[in-house]
Design goal:
Largest sheet: 8 strands, mixed
Order of helices and strands: EEEHEHEHEHHHHHEHEHH
Distance between the termini: 24 Å
Helix content: 40-55%
Strand order of the largest sheet: 1-2-4-3-5-6-7-8
CATH class: Alpha Beta
Oligomer: single chain
Shape: globular
CATH topology: Rossmann fold
Length: 283
Amino acid sequence: MTTLLVAAAGERVHVAEHGAPDAPPVLVTSGLGGAWFDWRTVTALLGGEFRVTVLDRPSLGLSRPARAAPTLRRDADVLIALAERAGRPVTLVAHSMGAFSAEAAARLRPDLVSGVVLVDPSFEDERPGPFWRLAARAVPLTRPLGYAVAATGLPLLVGPAVRRAVLRLVSRTIPRVRAALVRAVYARPAVLGALAAEWLAYAPMAADLIELRERRPFPPVPLVVLTASDGEDSGTRRTWARRHERLAAMSPRGARRELPGSRHMVMYDRPEAVAAAVREVAR
């Protein structure tokens, strides 16, 4: 695996690349707070067949502090730039909140996308109330907040333990990641600020995507939506199944796959299902 910093849509982002340079390209983006090492098992499964690029969004992972605030257009433009860098249409893979920007990129530049895999994706079909637009105005405060929290030294002390505690809520499997690597990521002021900034930006990004759906069609490319079926009550599972059916219906070549035995971090619990979905849409 090769890791490097690349320029993309005015940002300097960290990417991890695995696989042969001339293999079909796969571009992966994480959800809120995710990092490239979350996908190591998936990339290992796909590396012999594809050239997999895993993105750390601006300020997250080992990417440089973002120049622009988190918005749907910023994150979609970063994906578009990386797809152009790949040199041919890519298979987009996106987890959770990352599905917003993946869908937007597919709608904005269908020529760059050959297929899409959405991994237990976020989905909203109602515009948020005015509170969330107002809350998003606090995003500029998140950067100094990140520096203030980092200055306490607590992220260095408790970062690995906090990460494990959070993952136990959303995953049955917690792969080992060196404590030093976790601290190198989650004790960074930029990352701490970005966690708050992206949480505040969630609803405005969802609203922007709803508006984009009205203006730009989803391309008729293969689309697989993976739904985690564990870790929620039956009513919540039915709600998300309906939402994910609607996402799959965006494409005439769309399908939804339910994954027993998996919680939200599907790339941990069912990496083979993610790899199978990539192979399915890339055929």
